[in-house]
Amino acid sequence: MNDLYAVISALLASWFLWRWLGQTHLGHIPTIGTSVPVLSYIQSLQFFKRAGEFIQEGYNKHAYNGGVFKVAMPDQWLVVIAGPTMIEEMRRLPEDIASLLGGGDQSLATRHVVGTRVAEDPDRMAFVRARVGRNIPENFNMLQEELTTALSSVIGFPDGSLFPSRDQQLLSVFTQFARDYTISRRLIIMFPNILKPIVSRVFNRTHGSVRAAYTLLAPAIRERRQKAEECLKTGRVWHDKPNDMLMWAIERAVQEGRPDESVVPSLLFAEYSTVRVEAMNFTQALFRLSANPQYIASLREEVEEALAANNGRWNKTVVTMLSKMDSFLKESFRLSGVTHTSMWRQTQKPVTFSNGTTIPSGVFVAAAAAATHIDGNLYPNPHTFDPWRFVGCVGQNSLATTRPDFLPFGHGRHACPGRHFATYQMKLLLAYIVTKYDLAMDPRLEGKLPQSITFGTFIFPNPSVRVMMRRRVHYWTSRRWE
Ligand code: HEM
């Protein structure tokens, strides 16, 4: 009898795997590895460690020959778009055909971690989109103050740049949420969509950090909300209204009549998907610079010159004059990006590209970013880190300019709206660091770049590596940061 159960279970499991990642409606799209049912599932388990390798192989074979291929992930097929021509075509697809909301949901398992409201809300980031770009001059002093405080206490990233807070308890809850999110997502994406809601009930670890964040934020939310509602009712103007992400999220909850608690998952998710990505990219750039301290003098000189030309005053003008710094950061993004893919979309209708390839509806599609960035047809000596490669290109080819050959911020209608703010903030931070500190790489690495940690399409800077920073004494005696 036991044998009979074993045979039935094996048959059911095979049928399940066959349906899950077996021959699908994507049979006409070339596969990297095997598309034989069951075997493709077994291969998909290697995706976590070897996604970069698989995508590079697909890029080498198809970027200039069809521009599309597929790779098995444990939960579904990922259709990868490769080569500038196809990426340009992808850029033009409207949201009702290729949805970022759906793609982001597939990539980050958003609905299963922070809920359907955040995952399906097309305006969840509208407040960031609308406000962040035009707030740079207004935020200058706040950004400067944040980074001075962050650097003088502990050398870290001035987190809270969109929601300034010095409350250590709150900052550690945000960090805990990011950890919980990452772990939960990793487990959830092991399973097919149909099982994800059940898996999420068991493995979603974010509830504790969401609750903890609400406990800490509730008094501020209540107070601000009361005032916002009063102003809405009476038409009174709130002159010293805070201009931060918490306030923007509260205003949306007021407009939509949602309870106070609903503010917290949106806030945590927004921070997780923006500030953390920026911090990871910045860490990679800091690793580059510490491993190559010979570049520091040029960056420092550029900052000093820009400052001198601006009568020694730090402001937005100084930051926009830093073209070497822009180039250095862009080169770091190119070679040490934090994802293998970009422009995550889910097709909402069948899409036919100009070469006749059709991608059916409901498919997870992404552009091959990291492989594009080392394509010899697009970049001469593509594997060489040339910090001044883009000097003189600011404007048409700056860090914040998206192009089919530079995809860290995506491309097209959904290109990251926070990119100007983020690049501005990173330049300001790096200017501050090179002016005030000497840098050196962790001595254990003997000047080499640390190995990043990859999980699926994501690439994380190695958290065990330390950068050594020493205050430049003469700077302190000769000039003040003001
Ligand atoms: C280095 C830092 C950052 C990187 C690498 C980055 C990257 C990205 C990427 C790849 C996308 C998707 C683009 C696409 O699919 O075409 C995106 C979207 C987005 N990013 Fe960023 N981002 C960064 C920082 C930020 C910051 C600081 C903010 C907010 C202040 C922000 C706000 C957004 C929003 C709101 C979207 C969604 C756009 C939409 O719905 O159309 N990002 N980002």
UniProtKB/TrEMBL annotation:
Q: Does the keyword Metal-binding apply?
A: yes
Q: Does the keyword Magnesium apply?
A: no
Q: Which UniProt keywords apply?
A: Heme, Iron, Metal-binding, Monooxygenase, Oxidoreductase, Signal
Q: Which residues make up the binding site for heme?
A: 416
Q: Which InterPro entries match?
A: Cyt_P450, Cyt_P450_CS, Cyt_P450_E_grp-IV, Cyt_P450_sf
What cofactor is needed?
heme
What PROSITE patterns would the database entry show? CYTOCHROME_P450
One Gene Ontology molecular-function label: monooxygenase activity
Q: Which Pfam families match?
A: p450
**Signal sequence bounds:** 1-22
Which family, according to the similarity comment?
Answer: Belongs to the cytochrome P450 family.
Name of this chain's protein: Cytochrome P450
- The organism is Steccherinum ochraceum
